[in-house]
Design goal:
By secondary structure, the protein is mainly α. It has eleven helices and two strands. About 10% of the residues have low confidence.
Length: about 325
């Protein structure tokens, strides 16, 4: 700087820091400083970091609040429908599975014990945790083209069918009707009309073929039971509900991904069946219990559909090109 107060150009860029910092919200110094020789005020640096952390925490808190409440509601709804639909096929007052006493609504809503002191089952808490986690994950990274809310509605449908089929080996008509409508909506939004209808048709035809094989197996099983002196029953290897479920899943995932759902669902169910057979052999109950042991395939088909809809990146890692 010259004696008369004029600034000379020395070839070094200057920062005239007379405006607030956009990140920290702190005022900068009012004098020119060479860009290569900035003096850092440690006190202001700490305040800047604190402001950044506060912004991040506020954002995370809002995300958790917006996703936790719907997740809790979704878990409660899955538990409620899984409790009442197998018994009444309609919305009704839930009863304690251990003593049959009707729940008081405040106790049921707050997941408390029944009037006789029986605690809620483990399934109730597992479902609540899984749907809560699903809500957070779906909020952070919703399914492609579906968004958070439609993704959560689909998660509730998957959860209800999964739990009821696992506990009762039933795929109910009310859930199938709702699933058919939901599957068409989801499929047309995610894939368009043609892949949706082709996926549903493909799932139907494939499962009809498996259903025919299941009928043949049932006849062979009945003859075997009669030969062993056991009373025959009406158990089926695959039911008509499984056919309807796969048709719905075909609409949801579209063509040709329904092939993937069926293939991996059958492989997963076969793996579980193998483990059950090994356990029966080790426990010495294979001859007496093998023909009486059935596993529901609905949960395995739903599991693979969940991977396709919610975790396509993970599925791409385990599926060959």
């Amino acid at each position: 700087m010259k004696p008369n107060g004029k600034i000379i150009d020395v070839g070094v860029p200057f920062l005239l820091q007379d405006t607030p910092n956009p990140v920290c919200g702190l005022p900068n110094k009012n004098f020119p400083v060479p860009a290569m020789n900035i003096t850092v005020d440690l006190h202001e640096e700490r305040r800047c970091i604190a402001n950044i952390i506060r912004i991040i925490m506020n954002s995370m808190s809002m995300t958790l609040i917006l996703s936790i409440l719907p997740g809790l509601i979704a878990g409660w709804l899955v538990n409620y429908l899984a409790d009442v639909l197998p018994a009444t096929r309609r919305f009704s007052q839930p009863v304690c599975p251990q003593c049959g006493t009707p729940f008081r609504w405040p106790d049921y809503l707050l997941l408390r014990s029944c009037q006789n002191g029986h605690s809620r089952t483990v399934r109730v808490w597992v479902v609540q945790i899984i749907l809560l986690a699903a809500s957070i994950i779906t909020w952070i990274e919703p399914p492609s083209k579906l968004g958070y809310f439609l993704g959560m509605i689909l998660a509730v449908y998957f959860g209800v069918v999964f739990v009821i089929d696992l506990e009762h080996r039933l795929i109910l008509h009310p859930t199938s009707i709702f699933g058919a409508i939901l599957g068409l909506i989801v499929g047309m939004i995610a894939h368009g009309i043609q892949p949706t209808l082709l996926g549903g048709l493909g799932g139907l035809l494939i499962m009809l073929a498996f259903y025919g094989l299941g009928v043949l197996f049932t006849r062979i099983r009945t003859k075997r039971m009669l030969a062993l002196g056991q009373e025959a029953d009406d158990e089926e290897a695959l039911g008509s509900g499984d056919v309807i479920l796969v048709t719905i899943l075909g609409c949801i995932v579209g063509w040709p991904l329904i092939w993937l759902c069926l293939l991996y669902g059958i492989l997963l169910g076969g793996l579980v069946s193998l483990l059950i057979v090994l356990w029966l052999i080790i426990s010495g109950r294979y001859k007496t219990s093998a023909l009486m042991t059935f596993i529901p395939y609905g949960p395995y088909f739903i599991t693979t559909a969940v991977l396709v809809v919610y975790f396509p990146k993970f599925l791409a890692l385990i599926v060959p090109d």
